[in-house]
Amino acid sequence: MTSIKNLTENQWKPADDLPQHIKDLLVPKSPSQPTNYMLAFIQIVSSLKFQKRTGWLDHGVPPLDTESIADHMYRMSIISMVAPPANVNKDKCVKIAIVHDIAESLVGDITPFAGISKAEKHRREEETIHYLHDVIKPYNPDFAKELVELWFDYEEIRTTEARYVKDIDKFEMISTAYEYELKFGLTYNLDQFYAARAAIKTPEVGALCDAVLEKREKLVTKSKENA
Ligand code: ZN
Hints:
By secondary structure, this protein is mostly helical. It has one domain (about 20-225): Hypothetical protein af1432 (Orthogonal Bundle), CATH 1.10.3210.10. About 65% of the residues lie in helices and about 0% in strands. The protein contains 11 helices and no strands. The protein has helices at about 20-25, 35-50, 55-60, 70-80, 90-100, 105, 120-135, 140-155, 160-185, 190-195, 205-225. Helix 5 crosses helix 9 (about 160-185), helix 7 packs antiparallel against helix 8 (about 140-155) and helix 8 (about 140-155) packs across helix 9. The radius of gyration is 19 Å and the shape is globular. It starts with 19 loop residues before the first helix and ends with a helix. The model has no long low-confidence stretch (mean pLDDT about 90). The structure holds zinc ion. Zinc ion binds near residues 72, 100, 101 and 169.
């Protein structure tokens, strides 16, 4: 279900790799039995708990130490609760953080080095969000609608909350890079992850990032001294 296949444009479909037991749940038995759609939805989303973030694996971080997509979204949600600027709706931020990478449950975590164009990656993710909407709609149509709205809010940075969570996404990633270096030393070249600081626009998140970068600078100096 989670393998990234390098198919040509327009071949890939969200349900291509769905396991049979999930497909079986999606065959409507009767309109009064929407529970099966709910079970199918959470089984699809479950793959986020087990899929490793590809960026770390590509840089040599051991698979057992590599965080999952769900790990990343969980910590973003906590950060969104702890540190929101005064002008943003915290509840909405938490919701955006929890769903922003949900399409990866079927698409996988496609990095720029996977040989799939940015446009094709976007097409797959957009199609998946509509697919997930259709899966959960018979059980909870309000949630189905909200899921799509939150995802597009983030994707198109339509609100202040989306901007804030975009920045938290980078801050969380930078914090993870730093934690890998604390654990493994400067074994892996993670510089490109720190470079994401430049794209952060929310001053509060920028300041948090700078605090991490300052500590990382000390770690780099110290390990050069010990070399
Ligand atoms: Zn993310």
